[in-house]
């Protein structure tokens, strides 16, 4: 039994490293895309395209990456339980704040370009994801951090909280992939270097989500 637990821990650790690598690569490639192939990014710019570019960067770097890191910080880091819990909540609130700023950027872009809001599957999934994330965070705050419920209630809630977090992460990944596909179609990217770069960004985002979920799942058995 002890050997099996160590095997799961080793597998979770290797998957955590893979998740970090894929997450960092997705962020680096995203920066290359936005700064080299597009117009750069600036929230307060008069250039609507620079304002828009804040959106994909913050949704990947801010929302998805920090969400995944928060999940791994709680399940795979060898630290005191209270430290892991506080780190988990802190990283998640950073993810939420940056995600909201990313949403503000795309709504500002729509206003500047006089484009209708919420007219695509990408936007529907995105709003659903950020809304569920906010509810999940508040529920976790009052249930597990403040301790407004009994120990028995927390025990019943924990599996739902964990499952909900994993679902929301994959919803965020799905939102990012549909957004990249939508942007590539809008820009009419086909067999150019930029098109391949966007595809690699999407692949590394997907792998990040997969490795985070796998490492968290295996850590459950440690």
Give a short synopsis of this structure.
By secondary structure, the protein is mainly alpha-helical. It is about 85% helix and about 0% strand.
List strands and helices in order, with pairings:
Elements: H1 2-37, H2 48-75, H3 81-113, H4 121-145, H5 151-186, H6 193-219
Give your account of this protein's structure.
This protein is mainly alpha-helical and 222 residues long. Helix content is 83%, strand content 0%. The chain has six helices and no strands. It has helices at residues 2-37, 48-75, 81-113, 121-145, 151-186, 193-219. Helix 1 runs antiparallel to helix 2 (48-75), helix 2 packs antiparallel against helix 5 and helix 5 runs antiparallel to helix 6 (193-219). The longest helix has 36 residues, at 2-37. The protein is globular, with a radius of gyration of 19 Å. It starts with a helix and ends with a helix. Residues 1-6 have low confidence and may be disordered.
Largest sheet: none
Number of alpha- plus pi-helical segments: 6
**β-sheet strand percentage:** under 5%
Question: H/E order of the elements?
Answer: HHHHHH
The chain-level structural class is mainly alpha
What Rg, in angstroms, do the CA atoms define?
A: 19 Å
Poorly predicted runs of 5 or more residues: 1-6
User: What is the average of the pLDDT values?
Assistant: 91
Coarse shape: globular
Number of strands: 0
Helix fraction by DSSP (H/I, runs of at least 4): over 70%
* N-to-C span: 10 Å
Top keywords for this entry?
mainly alpha; 6 helices; disordered N terminus
């Amino acid at each position: 039994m002890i050997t099996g637990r160590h095997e799961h821990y080793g597998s979770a650790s290797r998957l955590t490293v893979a998740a970090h690598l894929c997450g960092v690569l997705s962020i680096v490639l995203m920066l290359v895309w936005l700064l080299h192939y597009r117009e750069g990014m600036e929230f307060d710019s008069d250039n609507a395209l620079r304002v828009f570019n804040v959106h994909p960067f913050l949704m990947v770097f801010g929302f998805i990456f920090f969400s995944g890191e928060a999940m791994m910080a709680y399940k795979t880091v060898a630290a005191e339980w209270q430290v892991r819990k506080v780190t988990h909540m802190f990283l998640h609130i950073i993810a939420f704040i940056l995600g909201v700023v990313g949403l503000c950027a795309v709504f500002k872009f729509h206003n500047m370009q006089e484009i209708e809001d919420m007219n695509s599957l990408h936007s529907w999934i995105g709003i659903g994801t950020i809304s569920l994330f906010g509810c999940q965070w508040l529920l976790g705050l009052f249930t597990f951090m403040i301790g407004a419920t009994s120990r028995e209630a927390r025990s019943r809630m924990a599996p739902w909280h964990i499952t909900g977090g994993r679902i929301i992460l994959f919803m965020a990944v799905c939102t990012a992939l549909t957004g990249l596909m939508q942007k590539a179609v809008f820009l009419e990217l086909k067999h150019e270097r930029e098109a391949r770069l966007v595809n690699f960004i999407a692949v590394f985002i997907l792998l990040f989500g997969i490795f985070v979920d796998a490492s968290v799942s295996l850590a459950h058995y440690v």
